[in-house]
Amino acid sequence: IQDLPTELDVNRIIITAGIQEIKMPLNLEGFYFAFNVSFEATRFKASLNLKNAQFSHEAHFTGCVFEKQLWARKSNFEDFADFEDCKFNVGSSFRSAKFEMASFRSASFEGNSYFAQAKFARGVFFQDFRSTSVVFFNESEFHHHANFNLAAAPVPAGPLYFNGAKFINHPPMFFGREMHEDTDWTDVEWPSAKQLAAQPQWRLEYDKRAYEQLRIKCGALGKVEDEHLFFRREMDLTGCLSPWYTRVTYWLYHLVSDYGHSYWRP
Questions:
Q1: N or C: where does the chain have the smaller number of CB atoms within 10 Å of the terminal CB?
Q2: How far apart are CA 92 and CA 231, in angstroms?
Q3: φ/ψ (deg, to 5) at 92
Q4: Statement: the pTM of the whole predicted model exceeds 0.90
Q5: Residue of 115, 38, 33 lying closest to 74 (CA atoms)
Q6: Residue 225 to residue 144: CA distance in whole angstroms
Q7: What Cα–Cα distance (Å) separates residue 254 from each residue in 226, 234, 257?
Q8: Given CA atoms 171, 174, 175, 180 in this order, what sign does their dihedral have?
Q9: Of 178, 83, 179, which Cα lies nearest the Cα of 125?
Q10: pLDDT > 90 fraction of the chain, expressed in percent and rounded
Q11: pLDDT (0 to 100) of residue 8
């Protein structure tokens, strides 16, 4: 890398200290980073290859601009992965990547971006992100919070594909964000009854509001099947939060007709 310092900090790797842009293609495929790594506020003029890279500590890419492709297929971020305020001008691939905790707050995805089959062990934050192309989350796993809220000024809604994704403990949060009519929720796996029973009441109430928001947004788009999907999930939590003497009513409603979805049961 041009202008790379000849000596690096013992306890952290600041690759781009004093470097505003990297002009050459950077191939870090299979690299193992034993310390904190920082590429902050750097413009990558050529491609960056992080396939199968291992980050044992924090990885910071805050404010980076990727003018060409970023490949991070099967990369492993064992600590915090920070891609806040990043711009992906062409496209990016985090397919089959593993994240402990990650932030893509205010990131901009200009080309198709792939998080298919990625695993998020803890919270992942896509707050205020923007996309002009499709972002794929097919068959990805969210084991904790998945935050897609929008607190900033409204942005155009881009398609999000969650086909076959798994939300292990909580539904995704879409407060304040518009939903694109091509958003795909086919075959998504939602928190099980066992997972719901393990949650405190305040958490169930918040998750119920998250399902409510998804239902409202799908209803506004006229997506009847998706609207009823989130209505059923909302009813599950309503039953869990109801007093014991009315809980049986919701149980029977579910048993008899799957909250009005099944015409075979009646």
A1: C
A2: 34
A3: -150, 155
A4: no
A5: 115
A6: 25
A7: 17, 12, 6
A8: negative
A9: 83
A10: 68
A11: 64
